[in-house]
Amino acid sequence: MRAEVALVLKGVDYEKVPQDLSNKSELLLNSNPVYRKVPVLLHNGKAVCESGIIVEYVDEAWPSADGDNLLPADAYGRAMARFWADFVDKKVFDALLGTLKASKGTEEEKAAAEENAVAVMSTLEEALMKGKGGEGPFFGGARMGLVDVMLVPLLVWLPAFEELAQLSLPWANKLPRLEAWFAASKAHPSTAVLPEPPKVSEFAIKVFLPRFAN
Amino acid sequence: MPSSDQVQVLNTWLSMFGLRVVIALKAKGVHYEYLEQDLQNKSQLLLESNPIHKKIPVLIHNGKPVCESLIILKYIDEAWPSADASFLPKDPYDRAVTLFWADYIDKKMYDAGSRIIRSPDAEQRDQGKKDFIEVLETLDGALGDVFGGGPFFGGQSIGFVDIALAPFLCWFEVYEALGEFKVWEAAKCPLLSKWAEAVWEVPCVKEALSIAPPHKLVEFVQAMRKKMQAGS
């Protein structure tokens, strides 16, 4: 999802090659021999792997004509963007997966998982508040940047987790900027390429829940 | 940016991630203040500089903190650009490949090594050893196939991957002591073993790694294990 949104933001034409992960193609195994995972970006036959690396590659290989790239120009701004992108990558989805896993567990486990998810989302809310002097609605300011692209899968996953894990986040009370981020990102033309949430729920049911069956 | 720069490094000698930052600053000839941290009793400065993760290393540049070692390396490379001491290649594709392998080290090396040290039983420790050897052999393959054979991942001089990997060398004696094996006998790494010798001789690397002498790390880990076994 992240790779696609990055390419759309940069106006790059691309071909989507869906992969069957239960029966991995020669192309996938040759392009990503180390991890054998998606996403992989193939640019003129050369493979780039790992979504964060792909997004930065897209930013550099296709610099925006108006100079407004996914990453800011100054070294400190770039370090901050990378920090939050890393936080999104390492903490956000794990916290949500945790609520899904706990949905099969005790009340205590459920409460702890939800608390963790709320804490992580609150951290994102703070980041939105402080970043770029609070100018929003995106982490990148008025335009989507690296952190926004890394967070984009949340648009499809969160509704799935909310439904399957009965997760309820304190949107109005505590997460107004994140709520605004959701609305702005959903409305943004680049996210039209994302799958529909119901499809994602089906996928989550098929793939994730069985893993948590114990 | 000359002498008006204020640079501090928050680290502990036990962190291979922090040593990356030290190597990088020395490679760029940047003057910095090294502040050894007590992670059992975190300082106000650390908690304020890295409130989200409360971890080291942290680089503080003119009062502004940068966290996460690979992010710090990129920052150092960009904040102190120099034609002859650039960590990353210019070409976007080559950069992506370099970053991939640094990320691989982050994802695989520490975890496997930790399992050699911390596993409660021999079975898990042996698995840690196996995984660790596999990581080394994969890196050896990459050095040959992707990075032109060496002497360094960065070519004739050290680059991003060399800086990311070199500090782990301090810990090899610890892994060997606890795993009861010799790294370069167990792992088939003709290129990487040569790399290990060569990189340690690079002045900025040698100076940085002297913060964590292998024999001291072994003593430390063995003392910790005794304490834990006695305490339980």
TrEMBL record, chain A:
**SUPFAM superfamilies found in the cross-reference section:** GST C-terminal domain-like, Thioredoxin-like
One GO cellular component assignment for this chain's record is:
cytoplasm
Q: InterPro entries from the entry?
A: Glutathione-S-Trfase_C-like (IPR010987), Glutathione-S-Trfase_C_sf (IPR036282), Glutathione_S-Trfase (IPR040079), Glutathione_S-Trfase_N (IPR004045), GST_C_Tau (IPR045074), Omega/Tau-like (IPR045073), Thioredoxin-like_sf (IPR036249)
PROSITE patterns named in the record: GST_CTER (PS50405), GST_NTER (PS50404)
Its Enzyme Commission number(s) read 2.5.1.18
Q: Which UniProt keywords apply?
A: Transferase
Q: Quote one Gene Ontology molecular function term.
A: glutathione transferase activity
Q: Which Gene3D superfamilies match?
A: 1.20.1050.10, Glutaredoxin
Instruction: Return the CDD domains for the record.
Output: GST_C_Tau (cd03185), GST_N_Tau (cd03058)
Query: Which residue numbers delimit the GST C-terminal domain?
Result: 74-208
Tell me which domain of life the UniProt entry assigns to the organism this sequence originates from.
Eukaryota
Which reaction is the catalytic activity of this chain? RX + glutathione = an S-substituted glutathione + a halide anion + H(+)
Domain GST N-terminal, by residue range, is 1-66
Q: What is this protein called?
A: glutathione transferase
Q: What is the lineage of its organism?
A: Eukaryota, Viridiplantae, Streptophyta, Embryophyta, Tracheophyta
Automatic annotation (TrEMBL), chain B:
Tell me yes or no: is DNA-binding among this UniProt entry's keywords.
no
Might you report a single GO cellular component term?
A: cytoplasm
The cross-references to CDD domains, in alphabetical order and at most eight, read: GST_C_Tau (cd03185), GST_N_Tau (cd03058)
Q: Does the keyword Transferase apply?
A: yes
Extract the InterPro entries matched here: Glutathione-S-Trfase_C-like, Glutathione-S-Trfase_C_sf, Glutathione_S-Trfase, Glutathione_S-Trfase_N, GST_C_Tau, Omega/Tau-like, Thioredoxin-like_sf
Quote the PROSITE patterns the UniProt record gives.
GST_CTER, GST_NTER
Q: Which reaction does it catalyse?
A: RX + glutathione = an S-substituted glutathione + a halide anion + H(+)
Name all GST N-terminal domain ranges: 5-84
Q: Which GO terms label this protein's molecular function in UniProt?
A: glutathione transferase activity
GO BP terms in the entry: glutathione metabolic process; toxin catabolic process
The UniProt entry, under Pfam families, shows: GST_C_2, GST_N
What are the record keywords, sorted?
Transferase
EC number(s): the record gives: 2.5.1.18
Can you name this protein? glutathione transferase
